[in-house]
Amino acid sequence: MRRFTSAAVGAALLAALVHGAGCGSGSGPGDLGPRVEPIVLYFDEGSSVITDRGYRDLRLFARQVGVFPAALVLVRGFSDGTGVDVMNEWLAHERAEAAARYLGSLGIDPLRLVVRGVPLAAPSQKGRKPKSQRTNRRVEVTLLP
């Protein structure tokens, strides 16, 4: 899978905004067109196996992304922060890779996929409670303009 630097992703975003392409949210001045909603997949503890619901959400996302053949897809994996840091880093990346592989199998060009593991940098929920940890074991998939 091709890896993009932050600078490359930033340049793609800037170019899309300047040239008016992308995945906006409605109509009106400055509209960027139809919108593809980001999705979030949740994982079991210590696992990078996609759930049935996750597969369904990825299929729906892939169908919607077909409208934007040149747009990049950002796939970011996260972990819950329990256990050893190196394992969390690996797991966050593996979750993102699992989602990206499945998107590739659905026909999205792997060169369009920007895959990142973000183990502890951006928890959606802070804390050590099971609900907080469950929410942090996730992959976020977003269409970049």
List the SSEs and their pairings.
Layout: H1 6-19, E1 39-42, H2 52-65, E2 72-77, H3 85-105, E3 113-117, H4 130-136, E4 138-144
Parallel strand pairs: 2-3
Antiparallel strand pairs: 1-4, 2-4
Could you say which structural class the secondary elements and strand pairing correspond to? alpha+beta
Our count of domains comes out at: 1
- How are strands sequenced across the largest beta sheet? 1-4-2-3
**CATH superfamily descriptor:** OmpA-like domain
What is the CATH topology?
Answer: 60s Ribosomal Protein L30, Chain: A
Mean pLDDT, to the nearest integer, reads 78
- Sequence of secondary-structure elements: HEHEHEHE
Rough outline: elongated
The proportion of residues in beta strands is 15-25%
Q: Count of helical segments?
A: 4
DSSP strand tally = 4
CATH architecture: 2-Layer Sandwich
Low-confidence stretches: 9-31
Let me know the largest β-sheet.
4 strands, mixed
CATH class equals Alpha Beta
Query: What does the radius of gyration come to?
Result: 16 Å
N- to C-terminal separation?
20 Å
* Helical amount: 25-40%
Q: How would you describe this structure in keywords?
A:
39% helix; 145 residues; alpha+beta; 4-stranded mixed β-sheet; 4 helices; 60s Ribosomal Protein L30, Chain: A
Describe the structure.
This protein is an alpha+beta fold and 145 residues long. It has one domain (39-144): OmpA-like domain (60s Ribosomal Protein L30, Chain: A), CATH 3.30.1330.60. It is built from 4 helices and 4 strands; from the N terminus they run αβαβαβαβ. It has helices spanning 6-19, 52-65, 85-105, 130-136; strands spanning 39-42, 72-77, 113-117, 138-144. A 4-stranded mixed β-sheet has the order 1-4-2-3. It is elongated, with a radius of gyration of 16 Å.
